[in-house]
Amino acid sequence: MTSHRTVLGTALAAVVLALAPGSAALAASPSPLPTQSYATIEADKQLNVGSAAQTVHVGWQFDNGGANVPLQTNETLVVDARDLAGIASVAVDDPRCTTAGQVLTCVNKDVAQPPYVDFTVRADTGAAVGATGTLKYAVSADHGTGATARAKVVVGAPGLVVGKVPDVTHAKIGSRIELPLRLRNTGDLATDRRVVLRWESLGGLVFDRKFSNCAYGDGDDPVEPGSQASVTCVFTASVAAGATVELSGPLTATVGKHVLTAVTDYSAELLKPGVDPGGGSHPGTGPALTLVPASGAGDGFESGATGRADVSTDSSADLAATTSVTPRRTAGEWTLTLNAVNHGPASAYGVGTKAVALVDVVLPKGTVATGNAFEEGEDTPYGECFLWVGDTKTAPFAAGHRHYVCPVPRGVAAGKSRLFVLWVKPAKDYTDAKGTATVRPGPAGIALHDRNTADDSVTFAFDKAATSPTSSASTSGTGPVALVATAAGGTAVLGSAALLVARRRRNSR
Predict the structure, then answer these.
(1) CA torsion, points 475, 477, 478, 482, in degrees to nearest 10?
(2) 468-479: per-residue pLDDT in tens?
(3) Of residues 224, 232, 217, 319, the one with CA closest to residue 262
(4) How many angstroms from the chain centroid is the CA of residue 409?
């Protein structure tokens, strides 16, 4: 059995050994703290220039590593373009800078001045395409180290435009479609960097993962109308000036079971050295996709390096309107909940801020809205309603009216709904007049192909006896209520209903 004295002796021996001359413990002394700030320069490593002035951004920073060192002063950036004689010229319009021939000197005398300078560079008249030179940067400061950097300047540049990808119409659910893409170099130099092609699709397309130089990304939920799928492919081969190329194999995608309309944005770019192309987290498993000389005339070209293609299917989205009522704690008032429900099978998806659908609600004669409860944000359950002004015009919510419009801007996924809440107050002479709630296509212009229009509209009437101020209501704002809802096809009497209390609710009352 080991004694406590033996353990202690062993520990003391280890300490003595660690402190012995020449020991590793003595050799591993901490690094000294910096005595001044260290400078770094942030600038592009290559600039392609033409006859038009091109803006160049150069930034710098000083880092003290957390040490207590004097603050650097007189930060100075020198841009030396003397190696560009006969190739390109620089100019600057900044009160901090002075010019001496092809040398720019810019000084920050105030710590509040920005640590960057923008200047311009343009190719000299008669400079040969492909001619190169070096632009030199140097930054210094009192109480700071110096730093240098260089940029290669090339006369001329490649220019990429993408071919038009044709729209796909009447696609069948579960079918496979092709998204061909052409690329043309309209510049005066061949590409000298990696070419990146991207496809980003919203609406339910599922791309086949069959190319090893492509990365594939999936959305969080393919049922959701805003779920995104993407493909990012990197090509290292050069594209000659004036050349038109196309994909060596078709880029294919399956039309998901909830697709009504899908939008695919495609683009091309030259990737700067050292920059990660990003993209999805799933690499392809097949051979590499390459760029080969294009054949045939194609479908024309976009004006730049981006384009958009639409896919529409023969599916449909059955949007229905539903309503329910609960008495408010405020005596004699009701809470009217409206829903735009998508019975599917497709998700109704739109691009941008224009509404895919609208819930058009006209309150019964003898009632007015006193407020609209909604939560701000893109993914909140409570939507905002607006005052109806005309068939194509609305205004911000205002109490005291009967006609309102509640937009569904980003769409409704299959099997889900969009909720709206209005607070309603009747007049003393209110009888059993009926109101209507109707789901209509929105200004986004998405064709819903709704095959069941019977549930697009619902009429409702408040039962004053069931919602009078003397009716018993629980402390949560719920209680027995009768709502007579008449839709095309029949009349139903709805029983008790409850309204979830909205957190962070914005009250328009």
Answers:
(1) 130
(2) 433 322 222 223
(3) 224
(4) 16
